[in-house]
Task: structure prediction
Amino acid sequence: MHSRRKHFDKLLALLIAVFVVGGALIFASAAFGLLARGVSGITSAVFTHIVFGIGGGLIALFTAYSIDYRTWRKLAPYLYVAAICATLLVFIPHVGIEHGGGRRWVALFGFSFQPSEALKIGVIIMAAAYFASIGARIRQYAWGLGGFLLILLAPALILLAQPDLGTLGVIGISSLALYVAAGARMRDIAIVMCIAIIILGALTLTRPYVRDRVVTFFLPFQSQQEEGYQIKQSLIAIGSGGFIGRGFGQGVQKFTYLPEAMGDSIFAVAGEELGFAGASAIVVAYLLFALRGLALAGRAPEQFGALLAVGIATYLASEAFINIAAMVGAAPLTGIPLTFVSQGGSAMLIALGSAGILLNISRYRNARRGV
Result:
């Protein structure tokens, strides 16, 4: 199948630019609120987000954009193994950092990072390369369902041990979308869904922190000063914004009680300051990003590019929708960041790098479709 090289997709690039610039402004507003509250470590967190996250992320974006996306297919097994090995570092004493009940960070040479962020794109590249290579054999149990579960096995075990169910959920959703796009049978998809439900049920019964989050989701106001505190404050912030919001920088909750204003709860900051209209615009922007990514997948000249685009678009958009759903009480809290906006050097760097790969895919078109 022939393809022709064109300029990058302008709509996709515009959406990424809006997320980065608009996200930086929202982040600055949230950071100012925490600074006024006298929260410790704000200067360091802001520096890491701006320099390592946004600055390093933009370098990663332009670097990934300049690399022919087909190169990642050759590197897929090595990137996958490297991401798994890096994530295993969290279990090494004096290297892995425990925070908030989980071991998700690694500190080396004075820098800390979250290797599971790299695991997301590593699994997506590996899955895209694998399913592109097996072709029609995906309809066979051993190659299709067996291969899918085998790719997810090591990441799932590592993330369950950390524990980091939010990251595991994002990897599972993006990989499943890729698997479906590759031609998986409905029977196999149903089996995957059943396995996911069984695992989630087992975790709810055996792990108290999972059970607490599920109970909080169904009864958010039962423990308003404990597990339900964050969702309560988030809903207060979003609700007080009204239709047009209090105005940029004029939010109140970030100065008082809203937890994780620069992280998980940053959508609540945006909702209070920009109101229903602004919050809806953010949701629409993420929806457009997802749809544009899927449209580019349909125009890719060969299967690997199409599957990679589906995986990346789903990964970046699902993170955002999971975060937003949690902040409005439509999903349990997971700790998943708001894509391109929330505090997190590692998350921002990998997200922008992944967006760079998607932009590179957009440069190639199926010549026979004339698009």
Notes: The chain has one domain: 3-369.
